[in-house]
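Researcher: Good morning. I'm working through a list of sequences from a screen, and I'd like to move beyond sequence-only analysis. For each chain I'm collecting a predicted structure so we can compare shapes side by side. This is the next one on the list. No need for commentary yet; just the structure.
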Amino acid sequence: MKKTGIFFTYFQGERLRDFPQALAGILEKENVSYYDAVYDSRDGLYYLTPASEELLLEVHSQDMVQEVKLTGNYESALYSAGGTVQAADEIWQGKIDNAFVFTSFGDHHAGRNFYGGMCYFNGAALAITSLKKRGIERFTIVDTDCHHADGTRDIFGYDDDVLHVCFCHQDYQDNHRNVDVRIPYHTSDEEYLTQVKQEFIPRVEAFKPEYIFWEFGYDATQGEYGDKGLTRDCHLKLAQLIKAVADRVCHGRLITILCGGSGRSPATYIIPRIIDCLAELGIYH
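Model: Good morning. C-alpha cells for this chain:
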C-alpha cells in the first residue's frame, strides 16, 4: 500500500460539510497521515503549516499579495496553498508517497499578478518553486477542472521544466509544453477517459517528470455548474489512470489538489474514493 497524506483546511461552505467525518475508515489506516489546519497533534508531526510570505513573493507579485490581504481571506489562503507545499516536501522527505490536498480556496486561477474564481494563491506553483530549490527539475501538472487553468498557464507558460495539460473548455492547442484539450458538453465517461489516455498519458511518459500535480475538479460532473456529462464514478477511473502513470514515471509522486465543484453530495461520494485509490486501501470496489 502507498503512504498517503491528507492535508485538510476548514472552509465555511456546503461542499465539504461532511468532512473530515466522511473519511471514517480511511483516517484510521496506518498508511494514511492526516495533516490538520486547526488541531495540532501532540507530537506536532501532523500539523498543517501555512505558506510563507517569502515563498509567496517568489511566485506572486507584491501588489497581488497585498490585495489578497484586503479580502479578509488571507490567512485561510495561506493554509490552503500551504497544504500543497507541505505535501510536496513530505513526499520529498520520504514520509509519504502521494497526497490529497483539500483547499479552502482553489489554485489554478491564481497567476503571477492576478487571482479569481476563489483562487488566491497557486499552491502547485509555490510547491514547484520550493522543490526546485531542492534540486527537483521536471514537473507535470494535469488539470481536469472544467475551467481553463489561466493562472497556472500564466506562471509556467514558458517554463521548459513544466508540462501542463489542461482538459477544459478551451480550443485544442499544443504549444511549448502547454496543451489544452477541449471537453464539449454531453461528453461520456468513456470519451473523456479516452482523451486522457490519448492526450495526457503518452506526453507524461515521454516527459518523465519527477512529480505530478493533479488539479482535480469535479465541476464537470452531471448536475454541477460546469456539467459536461461525466458521472461521479468517472473521477475514480481518472484517479486510477493518473496514479498508474505516476507510479510508472515518477515513483508515485502524485499530489492531488481539490479545485472546482460545489455540490456536497458529489464531494462526499467522490473524494473518499479517490483517496482510497491513492492509498491502495480497497475499501471501495
